[in-house]
Amino acid sequence: MTHDHIPIHVLKGRGIAHHQPHRFEADTRAAFDDGWGTLDETVAAGEEAAAPATQVSFEEARSAITRNASPDLGFTLGLNPYRGCEHGCVYCYARPTHSYLNLSPGLDFETRLVAKRNIAAVLREELLRPGFVPERLAVGTVTDAYQPIERDLQLTREVLAVLSAAHFPLAMVTKGSGVERDLDLLAPMGAQRLAAVYVTITTLDAKLARILEPRAAAPHRRLRTIRTMAEAGVPVGVSVSPQIPFINTDMEQVLEAAYEAGARRAFYQVLRLPWELKPMFRQWLQLHYPDRAERVMARVQDLHGGKDYDADFATRMKGQGIWADLLRQRFTKTCDRLGFNRDREPLDLNQFRPAALRGQRDLFG
C-alpha cells in the first residue's frame, strides 16, 4: 500500500488534521489535483472551517490489567480505561494502536474514542482471583487516564476506588489536571506508599504546547497540579518527555519549575516514531517548522541508529550515540543539581488486601 501527498493543514484544537491511512488498509490514497487548483487551495487555506466533534463509543472489557515483559519499562502491569486520547499529542507513540480498531491513527485517534465502561468491575474480579500476586501497576500507560472525557465518565475514578479499597499500589503519568479531583483517594494512598503521580511537562512554552498537545492542560496548569499533589502529600514527579531535537529545548527550565512546584522524581524519554507516526510527525514538522524539519529528523535518526525509529529495547527510550549521551548528561546534571530522584521509596506491595473488595459487589451491579 502506498500513500501519496496528503494536504497538510491546521485543524483548530486537534493535533493531526487528516485521517492518516493505517497499515492494515488495502486501498491506496492520494491527493488529486483536478486542474482547478483546489489541491493548492486546500494546502494554502491553513485551517478547516469546523473541527470534528469527539465521539465516544463503549466496549465491555474482557480484561482490565495488561502485562508486559519489556525490560526497559519500570512496571509489569498496566491499565487503560480508554482507547484513543483527546489530548491530541502529535508525537504520541500510542497513535498506531488505533489501527487495530480499523481507525486512523491520525484524526480518529483523538476524535473517535473508546471507553471501557465495565473496567472497574473487571479489575475487581481480577484482583479477587485466587493466587493473584501484586506487581507494579501503571495506570494510563497507553492513553491518558485523565483526558477530558474522564470528567463525565469517571472510569479512572472507579478504578482508583477499587485499587484503594484493595490497598493495591499504583503509579500514573498524566497531562490532565483532572487528577486533582481524585485527591480524596490519592492522598491517603500516597501517605501509605500506595500511589505516585507523574505529570508530563514537555515544555514551558505555551505556544509550542498548544500545537504539540492541543487539548492537554497548559504547562502552567500542570505545574499547579504538581504543587497541589505535593501539598496533599502525594509523591509526585515530572516526565520531561518526549525530548524532540530542536523543538522542545527547555529541559533544564522544566525540571527547575517542576522541582520548585514540589516534584521530587523525574524521568525522560526521546521521541519515538513507530509505524504510522513517522509520516504524521514529518507532516507536522513541515507545517509548523519547515525551516528546521530536515534538521530535526536528521537528529532523530541519529538517536535511533540512522532510522526514524529503532524499536530495540536497549535504546528505544533514551536513544543511542553522541546526542543521546548529551541528553543524558543534561538530564543527570540538572537532576543532581536540583535534588531529583533522591531517597525514592518504592511502592509497598505488601499491603494488598483483596478480601476488602468483597463488599464492593453492589457497586458494579
Automatic annotation (TrEMBL):
Residue ranges constituting the Radical SAM core domain according to the UniProt record: 71-307
Pfam families, alphabetized: Radical_SAM
Keyword terms of this UniProt record: Iron, Iron-sulfur, Metal-binding
Key word Zinc present: no
InterPro entries per UniProt: Elp3/MiaA/NifB-like_rSAM, MJ0683-like, rSAM, rSAM_sf
Protein name according to UniProt: DNA repair photolyase
Organism: Hydrogenophaga palleronii
